[in-house]
Write a structure and sequence with these properties.
With 288 residues, the protein is an alpha/beta fold. The protein folds into two domains: 2-87, no CATH class; 119-287, Nucleotidyltransferase, domain 5. It has twelve helices and five strands. The chain has helices at residues 2-6, 12-18, 23-31, 36-54, 61-70, 77-87, 168-181, 197-200, 202-211, 227-239, 249-264, 278-287, and strands at 129-139, 142-151, 157-163, 189-193, 213-217. It has a five-stranded mixed sheet with strand order 3-2-1-4-5, with helices on both faces. β2 (142-151) and β3 (157-163) form a beta hairpin. α4 crosses α6 (77-87) and α5 crosses α6. The longest helix has 19 residues, at 36-54. It is elongated.
């Protein structure tokens, strides 16, 4: 307490007298070197904060533990968690809700081709199965809608598009961006979506047919059939959207693009990929 109050420019002799501490005892304590454990904790605290800040304030104890492990340093999650609490490096973002799926229509519904609950029928290589969906981002200018295509094997966002609407053109633009950057193998590609009108529209179905892409749709009322895309949206909103107040749609577009292409796809450690980034996981898969 003397040390803390001294930082506020209070006199040491007055503080020691008030707190019944001898000045000699205070100076002996101050000059005494930290024990080995305390020194280790202090050093670890600096590393934990550095990793947390590099992660844009998004990593919890498990990912920080993995990041430390990646540089040859092993520490328990419990110890890291205590340091995070002490350092005050955690946050809970706010949420807003907008309905993006309109499944009340008479358009054709594709059968569910993928089975997300059974790993035997999940993709075993990149660009075999993509999941797609639309979400929303609040700005002071109004809503911004984001459509993505997510590779279910690598968890990489392979295509995206953003606009002030969520019409079928949005998902077609995202599809164009994905097809323009990825190489589809001879075994073909399946795209999985919910039953939203955008994905059931004739123009969308015709485009998939023209590209030789097999459509797949979730069962009625079963959001878990598209769980990987929903999980990505949750991550995006938790780590970026709920932490940021965007003035304009353009500002949000730039931040989301940078988050996905620079951070999520290339750097962020993904727990289901063995704490590798999607890009690193893809590189290793293609090298086999």
């Amino acid at each position: 307490m003397v040390e803390e109050l001294r930082a506020e420019h209070l006199a040491v002799n007055i503080l020691c007298k008030t707190l019944s501490v001898s000045r000699a005892g205070y100076y002996a304590w101050r000059d005494r070197p930290l024990c080995e454990r305390a020194q280790s904790t202090a050093a670890l605290s600096l590393e934990v904060r550095a990793i947390f800040e590099r992660s844009r304030g998004t990593y919890g104890a498990p990912r920080i533990q993995e990041a430390l492990k990646g540089v040859g340093k092993r520490h328990g999650k419990g110890r890291i968690g205590k340091i995070m609490v002490k350092e005050g490096i955690s946050a809970k973002p706010k949420r807003k809700f907008v309905k993006t799926t309109d499944s009340k229509h008479d358009l054709p519904i594709a059968p569910r081709v993928i089975q997300t609950e059974n790993q035997e029928t999940m993709p075993v290589k990149p660009n075999e199965t993509w999941g797609t969906d639309i979400t929303y981002v609040a700005t002071r200018e109004g809503w911004l809608f984001l459509a993505i295509y997510l590779d279910l094997f690598t968890r990489k966002v392979v295509g995206m598009a953003m606009a002030d609407h969520m019409r079928t053109e949005l998902v077609l633009e995202a599809l164009d961006s994905a097809l323009g950057r990825e190489v589809i193998g001879e075994s073909g590609l399946t795209t999985h979506s919910d039953r939203g009108v955008q994905f059931a529209a004739e123009v969308y179905r015709d485009r998939l047919k023209a590209e030789g892409i097999t459509p797949s749709m979730s069962r009625k009322g079963n959001c878990y059939d598209n769980a990987y895309v929903e999980s990505f949206f949750h991550t995006l909103k938790t780590e970026l959207v709920y932490r940021t107040e965007f003035a304009t749609r353009e500002e949000a577009k730039k931040a989301i693009f940078e988050y996905i292409e620079v951070w999520y796809n290339r750097e962020r450690l993904h727990s289901s990929l063995g704490y590798k980034s999607p890009a690193e996981f893809e590189r290793r898969a293609l090298a086999v």
